[in-house]
Amino acid sequence: MKFSEAQLEEAIIELLGEQGYPHVLGEDIARGPEEVLIKDDLREYLQARYAADGITDGETEFIINKIQRLPASDLYGSNKICMKLVSDGFLLKREDRSHKDLFIHLIDYSPTDQNIYKMVNQLEIQGFEKRIPDGILYINGLPLVVFEFKSAIREEATIHDAYVQLTTRYRRDIPELLKYNALCVISDGVNNKMGSLFAAYEFYYAWRKVTGDEKIERDGIDSLFTMINGLFDKGRLRDVIHNFIFFPDSSKKEEKIVCRYPQYYAARKLFANIQEHRRPEGDGKGGTYFGATGCGKSFTMLFLSRLLMKSAALASPTLVLITDRTDLDDQLSRQFTGAKGYIGDEEI
Known about the structure:
Blueprint: H1 5-18, E1 23-25, H2 39-49, H3 57-68, H4 75-88, E2 90-92, E3 102-104, E4 117-121, E5 125-126, E6 130-131, E7 135-139, E8 142-149, H5 159-173, H6 175-178, E9 183-187, E10 192-195, H7 221-231, H8 234-243, E11 245-246, E12 257-258, H9 261-276, H10 297-310, H11 326-337, H12 340-343
Parallel strand pairs: 1-4, 8-9
Antiparallel strand pairs: 2-3, 4-7, 5-6, 7-8, 9-10, 11-12
């Protein structure tokens, strides 16, 4: 089965609707033509989430301005800061200085999931040129996922064209949208891939399993369903945004790593197994992970390290990495010592 772009857009909107993402037309959102935040949603979320803390209208506007004034001219730097605020949260100094500082999470990562979701299409954005992205997934007014579709019917249109549209034209013309971007999705219905805005095309990957327990990896049209039901399960998408997007502390290039699906499921299963086998109740055997050369095991270890270090139950454990090759010593040393902010430990 092959889709036109309009049919694919409609199909993905419908599938996302089944996952709990309501569809909204861009023209129905109250905003200026150059604005990309849905400020009303962000206000509503913040005032509801922190009502018991007495958050004020002034404090709410301060938070909105804090993220909005990040310069789109430095897209990589602003995206890195924005993702840090989204994934780790930040302290807000109160207007009434007699009140204790308030720790703000822009997304509710708890099981209660008090977030506001919207799947928006046909949103006209006036930047250096007017652009209309095929789809934007908003959480609490933040445009965190951008979708670009190409028809599998027209031979001259390829999924690579969708990649170019996102990473070249949108980046050039509407960088304001992309400074909030967590990940991008490109699709022609048959080929469905996700990745980082700053990644080369060959580092965009399909999401071929829904739960990670399936014996068979799905490709073709089936990979559209595994991506929507797997990656875009609300809890899983929040988890990816929270824990599985890595920026090095410093980098000479625009480096942003979004997990592949085997890395996500491996890190999550290892983390669960480590907790289950903890001593003294367990036998202390956390598990073994086998991965082929080039599958990204070092990033899997990095993702797992963040989960372990952020675990309240494990209370800041000591992690030891042992390798059997000098080149791996060098590689892991550079990677982990450059990930202090991500892992959450200055003593690496």
